[in-house]
Prior knowledge:
The chain has 368 residues and is α/β, with parallel strands linked by helices. The chain is built from 13 helices and ten strands.
Amino acid sequence: MSRSDPSDCRHPARSWVDNAVRLIEADTRRSADTHLLRYPLPSSWAGDVDVALYLKDETTHITGSLKHRLARSLFLYGLCNGWIREGTTIIEASSGSTAVSEAYFAAMLGLPFIAVMPATTSPAKIALIESQGGRCHFVTESAQVYAEAQQLAEETGGHYLDQFTNAERATDWRGNNNIAESIYQQMSAETHPVPDWIVVGAGTGGTSATIGRYIRYRRHATQLCVVDPENSAFSVAYRTGDLDAVTGVSSCIEGIGRPRVEPSFLPGVVDRMVSVPDAASVAAAHHVSNVLGRRVGPSTGTNIWGAFGLLAGMVAEGRSGSVVTLLADSGDRYLDTYFCDDWLRAHQLDPAESVEVLAEFERSGRWP
């Protein structure tokens, strides 16, 4: 008697989940890894010190941002835990790039997707989410998004992806082509293959958790720096040890910074935190956009500001090495905000002083 294929006995619900995982994996295989770009630092001020800055270009994901990785992991996490089935309504608390990427994966699997967001969300972001087949559900206060998303999931019998809790749980931090493993593989043939620093921002905390854990797991000498914008609770928690810290104010830099410490943020894997003024993030985003010849988003500006400071410290110490940070998303998403002079004036964001700091860094390699 011949043995039958075990798949022949699968319950129809399992067959749908198996196919959903296959679709996500097939999409991943069709996508090349994101580029690692070498930033053109001036050679004149380094002298005998050889320093290099690399940018992991997450804008090349099909949904245009770092959050594509997170969305993929959250869907696989929900599918493999039995929380997402055929017809499940997918709910998320997000008004930004995470929702855009999650709407993409929901559409791929034929699932309805609802993004819960403040009513003040820009029309451009709403349009991006809707272009991927998602629906937007609005609340009056940003702090309401968590409870409203959970309530919607209960009312619809759906699944709340909950990026802020599950970001550090859903990603396989030991490897499996996560962003940390990808960085080290791409750096392997460089002059300084093990970076002195990797610099990232924290929105959910998931990216810093993945990279910080991987560094320790692989016993690399790299240190992890998390850059944090004004009004974010993460830097307060890191400085005081109070994981219940709240600021009650939303960050002005989209994609990073939170008014509360999210469950996925793991301060124990962070070696240094740097608080970056909002105007400095904007100035650095404009600066890098000019250097690269294409716009980058404001959280990339935050990353760059932190990376430049670390590089200047290495130059001052006469220490050669490399620094890696992320191009998180495209600045084309922010034409009516961070790249609009009227919007910057309305939000009292004057980058002039920070522009001078950046110019001095490019001229001399020095940092305030």
